[in-house]
């Protein structure tokens, strides 16, 4: 059963669990490509040859284990956010090649940040930056309880990370995402879901193609605190659980690249 935070992926499950044949058909019909424009397609992983990112970049082949929920969600995010996933792929390969030219085997902060967002990223799309700043400051009760109605009207939470979707299928206390704020206007909030996601895809791809990142750019966000994520969080006392809603170590409000 899909989490409420994975509901935008529900159409892919209308005829049951999508298999690789269906995923490849969808990628082909949409004319999707990976970081260098190679036609996107999903293949079983191999123990030989280049790594995941380089193989995807050069050949369009995205390693996808059959009957594996984690890899299925990765494939679905490729289909929903193809521009952003391609941009992430380009950035990974560029950083990898640059490191090799320097004779370095270290991943570096950029690749670490890209991996974290790819696996656990959450897009906080809203028209009230002050609510985002309150989340950055870990003022959980203010945002999720005292200003809950305002948050619902002005902000959408879109889980991008495929590992987070996998975890949300069997959620646990403390499940956390890596959040990025993207400021939108009130008109965007009224768009049909597919149109809104396509617009976000363009915005995110532009961000990743235009600047560097480090893990410090992401804000921790307790996923089960998002309104609608679980029935339990309708109770104000839900947010008293310090296992999930921890006080901030230091103020980092507004540091997300979505504000820049």
The biggest beta sheet reads: 4 strands, mixed
Count of beta strands: 6
Number of helices: 11
| Radius of gyration of CA atoms, rounded to a whole number | 18 Å
Into which percent range does the helicity of residues fall?
Answer: 40-55%
Structural summary, described in words:
The protein is built from eleven helices and six strands. It folds into two domains: about 5-115, no CATH class; about 115-260, no CATH class. With about 260 residues, it is α/β, with parallel strands linked by helices. The strands form two sheets. The chain has a four-stranded mixed sheet. Strands 1-2 form a two-stranded parallel ribbon. The protein has helices at about 20-30, 50-60, 70-80, 80-100, 110-120, 130-135, 140-145, 150-155, 160-170, 185-190, 195-210; strands at about 40-45, 60-65, 120-125, 155-160, 175-185, 220. The protein starts with 19 loop residues before the first helix and ends in a 38-residue tail after the last strand. Mean pLDDT is about 95; it is low at about 250-255.
Walk me through the topology.
Layout: H1 20-30, E1 41-43, H2 52-59, E2 61-63, H3 69-80, H4 82-101, H5 108-120, E3 121-126, H6 129-136, H7 140-146, H8 148-154, E4 155-159, H9 162-168, E5 176-183, H10 186-189, H11 193-210, E6 219-222
Parallel strand pairs: 1-2, 3-5
Antiparallel strand pairs: 3-4, 5-6
Helix pairs in contact: 2-4, 3-4, 3-9, 4-5, 4-11
């Amino acid at each position: 059963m899909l989490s409420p935070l994975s509901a935008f992926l529900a159409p892919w499950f209308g005829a049951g669990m999508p298999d690789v044949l269906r995923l490849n058909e969808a990628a082909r019909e949409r004319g999707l490509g990976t970081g260098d424009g190679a036609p996107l397609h999903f293949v079983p992983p191999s123990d030989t040859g280049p790594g995941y990112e380089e193989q995807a970049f050069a050949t369009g082949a995205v390693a996808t284990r059959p009957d594996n929920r984690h890899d299925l969600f990765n494939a679905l995010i490729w289909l929903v956010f193809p521009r952003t996933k391609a941009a992430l792929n380009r950035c990974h390969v560029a950083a990898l090649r640059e490191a090799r030219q320097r004779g370095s085997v270290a991943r570096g902060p950029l690749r670490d940040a890209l991996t974290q967002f790819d696996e656990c990223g959450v897009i906080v799309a809203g028209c009230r930056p002050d609510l985002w700043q309150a989340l950055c400051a870990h003022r959980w009760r203010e945002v999720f309880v005292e200003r809950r109605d305002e948050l619902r009207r002005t902000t959408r939470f879109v889980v991008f990370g495929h590992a987070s979707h996998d975890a949300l299928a069997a959620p646990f206390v403390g499940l956390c995402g890596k959040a990025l704020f993207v400021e939108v206007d009130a008109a965007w909030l009224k768009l049909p879901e597919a149109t809104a996601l396509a617009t976000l895809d363009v915005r995110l791809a532009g961000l990743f193609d235009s600047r560097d990142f480090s893990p410090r750019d992401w804000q921790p966000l307790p996923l089960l605190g998002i309104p609608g994520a679980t029935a339990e969080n309708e109770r104000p006392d839900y947010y008293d659980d310090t296992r999930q809603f921890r006080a901030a170590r230091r103020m980092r409000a507004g540091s997300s690249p979505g504000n820049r």
